[in-house]
Amino acid sequence: MASRSLILMGQVVPCVKRNACKVRIRRMELDQNLLMYFKKEEFLFAHDPQKKCKVGDIVLVKELPQKLTTLITHSVDVVYPYGDVTCPLTGKKVIVGNYRDQIEEANQLYGKSSKAFDYDKAPPRGRLACSFDEDLSLNEDPLLDTLDDGNDVSLSEDGNMQIDPELEAIKARVKEMEEEAEKLKQLQSEVNKQMTMGSPTGLTPIPLSLDEKMEIDNRSVYVGNVDYGATAEELEAHFHGCGTINRVTILCNRADGHPKGFAYIEFGSKEYVETALAMNETLFRGRQIKVMSKRTNRPGLSTTNRFPRGTFRGRGASRAGRSCCHTSFRGTRRPM
Q1: Which residues contact 287 (CB under 8 A, 6 or more apart)?
Q2: Which PANTHER family does UniProt cross-reference here (predicted)?
Q3: How far apart are CA 102 and CA 94, in angstroms?
Q4: How far apart are CA 28 and CA 162, in angstroms?
């Protein structure tokens, strides 16, 4: 003899599923340590392609022999419309576990709550009219495959398919946010590419001779004690009165990308350097900056008596640099 399916009683709660209703089942669970019963709520989805279940309705659901989808595990057996249920013994209207006349008497004595349900606005539906046909085929629903695919298709009262405007607005907003995130990702990749290549155009940098480096350094200044939140555009605006600026370079830590607190500014002419040196100890973003002439690093030369680093390394390779830079370019210039 086949075992009978367990029938559960619950209340319909708001749900965005098109072919199912969300049912809240309340149970009393025994605590083995305290030997006391406590309320426990669980939620399940019942197949409801015709949307006969409304929010607040009391329904009887039973488990399906086979799951329709990952979420839909039950089917609706009987629907008791919220606020329109009649007790077959007394003939009185009931709501959940109380008679309506008792609730109305309490409302007259203590006043009606603003959150109380208005029974006069309850849908005029009968039990038989809201019962499901046992011959209804659950496997022939054309929208079952759309439940978990994100499609916003629903059935209207006349059986025609319609699109939920609220869900469409949410999808449009999500799509817009995804596009913005994609744009930010592209901008970040371009910045990383420029930092890696060392050129604003992404081309391979041309190696400079020592004389060319010295000529560029003679037109450049070192700026120390720079605020970590400063940008190349802000530094350019601060030194704009000194003369034409070709490039502003803010040195950053390659490991974490945080600024190191100093920068280099390349001017269009050597005469502008003297004017820039007069900006020493001026305030920039609330900090007193230090402006000095930029020195040229010559290979093999050191200001100390120790040997140059990387000369006697066992594997024959010197340690690579650990800095990166954020640069603002003016015109077509080769990288520093």
Answers
A1: 225, 226, 227
A2: 28S RIBOSOMAL PROTEIN S17, MITOCHONDRIAL, SMALL RIBOSOMAL SUBUNIT PROTEIN US17M
A3: 9
A4: 40
Helices (H), the chain: 100-110, 165-197, 210-218, 232-238, 271-277
- Based on the domain organization, do 221 and 286 belong to the same domain? yes
Contact criterion met (CB below 8 Å) for 227 and 288:
no
Q: Which tokens hold the place of 13?
A: 């709660």
Distance CA 122, CA 184 (A): 50
Distance CA 53, CA 141 (A): 17
For residues 165, 169, 174, 179, the Cα torsion angle rounded to the nearest 10 degrees is: 120
How many angstroms separate the CA atoms of 249 and 336, rounded?
A: 9
Separation of alpha carbons 169 and 4, rounded Å: 44
- Note whether 235 and 284 are same-domain residues: yes
- Cβ atoms 8, 26 nearer than 8 A: no
Domain extent at residue 11: 7-80
Exposed, middle or buried: residue 235 (CB in 10 Å: 0-12, 13-18, 19+)?
Answer: buried
Residue 243 · residue 269 · CB < 8 Å: yes
Domain boundary among 110, 131, 152: 131
What is the sign of the dihedral through the CA atoms of 94, 95, 99 and 100?
A: negative
Contacts of 138 (CB under 8 A, 6+ apart): 47, 64, 68, 75
Number of domains in the chain: 3
User: Which stretch of DSSP H or E encloses residue 25?
Assistant: strand 20-31
Q: What are phi and psi of 190, to 5 degrees?
A: -65, -40
pLDDT profile of the chain (336 residues), mean per 10: 69 86 88 88 89 82 87 83 68 73 82 68 46 39 45 51 72 85 84 60 59 85 91 89 88 84 90 88 90 76 50 43 53 42
Kindly state whether residue 13 falls inside one of the protein's structural domains. Answer: yes
Residues 96 and 64 in one domain: no
> What is the number of H-type helices and E-type strands within the chain?
5, 17
Query: Considering only CA atoms, which of 17, 25, 14 is closest in space to residue 47?
Result: 17
Pairwise CA distance, residues 284 & 263, whole Å: 13
